[in-house]
From TrEMBL:
Known EC number: 2.3.3.10
SUPFAM superfamilies listed in its UniProt record: Thiolase-like (SSF53901)
Keywords assigned by UniProt, alphabetized: Acyltransferase, Isoprene biosynthesis, Transferase
Gene (name only): hcs
Name of the protein described by the UniProt record: Hydroxymethylglutaryl-CoA synthase
All copies of domain Hydroxymethylglutaryl-coenzyme A synthase C-terminal, residue ranges: 187-431
Source organism of the structure: Candidatus Nitrosocaldus cavascurensis
């Protein structure tokens, strides 16, 4: 007789972050680049941009986040069966960043202590962390884990050319997540995760370049279009599996209590929410009243306008659409959804900047901390995740906040976890950006963390790290 054992929930048990100690203040940046500071503060939504020091890179940030996660949960290496690193700031064309991270952790836990562990480096621009989470969640769900946990760490340095429009959407940091059965924080919903994939040229970084080739406005529109497609697929699956029952006057967003969206910059989250809501509400009875408040018809792209290029090149349509979006974002209906479901997730982005793979998860972490601080009970709330990676792929999925979430969230304190920060001058920033400082010429000395000590001493390009006590 086949005995059916109900599947235990699997998801994120705890989160630890690492943010480098240097930052650029938006006013210094605006002055140096002769930009209106209001554009950065409100148009992009950035106040402080995290910058890596000369003795830091994505691998040591990842190891620092993992160490914090292990220490605060009293984990031993034998508890961990998989350690996945998702990044788009790869350091090597062949050697996975995981091995450097494991090497650093073994400086603390002992040589060979992680030898039993598996894991690979995952790449797909900013979405790869979501694939890593999904694959590791399923590794546990299908009972291949032998009682062990997975750590997924996302780590990136978002770096653009000096003087480019991407330069004010930089940032850096790592987020490590502990994935296990019966998690305290969030359990992922099953059979609803939805992915789309396409060959786009919105953003890519050919071999040997340290900064990407970016078609900025193209990437914004690609994000909106593909995230919407993934959301539509998610909605269909959520209805088919019975996870969500939609009444005729409801949209999928009514069944998602909190939203976490990929945040290349915080304003993008606001814009993306407007795009999704317009699509979801367009056929609902309430749209008529909203249109009356907006005071204009919703612009429709001309027939046959298939490609993203064609949409962007129709200046008249784009102008009208922008005007419509702005007016829509002024309505009470939009503001109510924004404030209650998304606003708290933007707080971290405003003071850190872009984390590429980590942006979505830093946003999620920010959201639960600041919603909890409002005194809201988060148990049982459904969080919808909208992940986007240029190139491109989008992923929509969801999870439910678990009853024991307070054990984790009540200890969260973003400012404390970021730690002491140093406001650097634009001159120092440009030296770091151009790689003009050696590791010995770091701007601040670090304690209780891993740092890069040399590149190439043991073999061309090989990196060595140490733990500073
Ligand atoms: N005060 C307030 N807001 C202002 C302003 C001012 N003085 N001047 C401009 N703005 C607003 C614009 O209206 C626009 O707002 P919107 O989002 O509501 O349309 C916003 O600032 C951005 O300005 P804009 O001129 O449209 O874009 P940009 O040339 O500065 O480029 C990006 C912005 C995001 C395209 C660019 O930074 C980039 O390429 N970043 C890297 C790629 C990226 O992050 N892509 C995201 C998808 S993954």
């Amino acid at each position: 007789m086949l005995l059916l054992i109900p599947m235990k929930p699997v998801g994120i048990d705890d989160i630890a972050i690492y943010v480098p100690p240097l930052y650029i203040d938006f006013k210094d940046f605006a002055e140096a680049r002769k930009i209106d500071p209001s554009k950065l503060e409100f148009g992009i939504g950035i106040k402080k941009m995290a910058i890596v020091d000369a003795d830091q890179d994505p691998a040591c940030m990842a190891a620092n986040a993992c160490l914090r996660l292990m220490q605060k949960n009293d984990l031993k290496p034998s508890d961990i069966g998989r350690l996945y690193v998702a990044t788009e700031s790869g350091l090597d064309e062949s050697k996975a960043m995981n091995s450097y991270v494991i090497g650093m952790l073994e400086q603390i836990y002992g040589q060979g202590s992680f030898e039993h562990c598996g894991g690979i480096e995952c790449k797909f621009a900013c979405v790869s962390g979501s694939y890593a989470l999904y694959d590791n969640t399923n590794w546990i769900r299908c009972d291949e884990h032998n009682g062990k946990y997975a750590i997924v760490v996302v780590s990136d340095v978002a770096k653009y050319d000096i003087g480019s429009s991407g330069e004010y959407t930089q940032g850096a940091g790592a987020v490590a997540m502990l994935i296990k059965e019966e998690p305290r924080l969030l359990a992922f919903d099953q059979k609803v995760t939805s992915t789309v994939i396409s060959n786009e040229h919105d953003f890519y970084r050919p071999f040997a370049r340290s900064t990407p080739i970016v078609n900025g406005h193209y990437s914004n529109l690609a994000y909106l279009i593909y995230v919407k497609k993934a959301m539509l697929m998610y909605k269909q699956k959520a209805i088919e599996t019975g996870l969500i029952k939609l009444r005729q006057d409801e949209s999928i967003i009514d069944h998602i209590d909190l939203l976490a969206m990929h945040l290349p910059y915080s304003k993008m989250g606001k814009n993306a929410l407007a795009f999704l809501l317009r699509h979801e509400w367009r056929n609902l009875p309430k749209w008529k009243q909203i249109l009356a408040k907006i005071g204009m018809e919703e612009p429709k792209p001309p027939e046959g306008m298939g490609t993203i290029e064609a949409i962007l090149s129709d200046k008249e349509f784009m102008k009208k659409d922008e005007e419509f979006r702005r007016r829509f974002m002024e309505t009470e209906e939009y503001k109510q959804v924004f404030e209650s479901k998304l606003a708290s997730s933007l707080k971290a982005s405003e003071i850190i900047g872009n984390l590429y793979t980590g942006s979505l998860y830093m946003g999620f972490r920010s959201e639960i901390e600041y919603e909890y601080r409002k005194g809201k009970d988060l148990a049982g709330l459904r969080v919808g995740f909208a992940s986007y990676g240029s190139g491109c792929s989008a992923m929509a999925f969801s999870g439910v906040i678990q009853d024991r979430y307070k054990e984790v969230v009540s200890r969260m304190d973003l400012e404390r976890e970021i730690g002491e920060r140093r406001r650097i001058s634009m001159e120092e920033y440009e030296q770091l950006h151009r790689g003009l400082r050696s590791v010995e010429e770091r701007i601040v000395s670090k304690s209780k963390e891993f740092v890069l000590v040399s590149i190439g001493k043991r073999g061309e390009g090989f990196r060595e790290y140490t733990f500073h006590n």
